[in-house]
Write a structure and sequence with these properties.
alpha/beta, Thrombin, subunit H, 2 domains, 6-stranded antiparallel barrel, 5-stranded parallel sheet, 12 strands
Length: 236
Amino acid sequence: MAERPPTNILVTGASVKHDDEMLSIVRAAGFEVRLEPWHPEVPALVESQAFDAIVVHLPLPGVGLGVLLSSIRAKAARCRQAGLVILTPEGDIGAVKKLVGRGVNRVLPNTATALEVLEALKAVQGVAQRVSIRLPIQLEVTLPAGKSQAFCQTENLSESGMLLRGFQHYPLGTRFSFQLLVPGTDRCLKGIAEVTRTTDAEREKVEGFGARFVEVESAEWLEFERILVEKNDPVH
């Protein structure tokens, strides 16, 4: 199997530091991190360079979050599909949360632990590049009680992971092997994925969980990518 390319993260804000514990933990989890202390050229940076996810520490000196958000989600921006995590002072959480679903994906207090930030990053990476494809998928999960098989249905897929519909609930970080029939072929995409979140059934209308690809068999990956391009109907 071939490992997926590392997820590329941008961390910015006036208060970010090179010795921050959060950066160490995120890097140890396999993410590539670019630290960019806030400066006026950051909005241009997110338009011209691609990142899989962005962490922004508020407040931003001399500019509102709206300016940066407009740059990230600009039609031609290379970061337009990036997952966006905002760390904000406690007193501003309510106001910033109003932007969730309007360009922002997760909001955390700036007192959040490094592990909480890591879990948020795992949940949002590649969130905007999903396509709606419902296919049967077979899982094999190893838990303390032993190995078990499960059958689910994909709700959507991306190059970084998938959302699965099913009533199984696994702890965050659980890894499982999977087999997914490539549409229009008799071949299966096989690999290993990791649970990144459980769904909010009331809000998302889906009972299930999200997972990121950890390893995939490279032989079927190009065909899988072609299917995603052909069926590219973004999920909003």
